[in-house]
Amino acid sequence: FSMNIHEFQVVGRAKPTEASPTPKIFRMRIFAPDAPRATSRFWYFLGRVERLKRANGEILSVNQVQEKRNDLVKNFVVWLTYQSRSGIHNCAKEYRDTTRCGAVSQMYMDFASRHRVRFRCIHIRDVQQISSAQCTRTAVTQF
Question: What is the pLDDT of residues 98-114, one digit of tens each?
Answer without folding.
Answer: 999 999 999 999 999 99
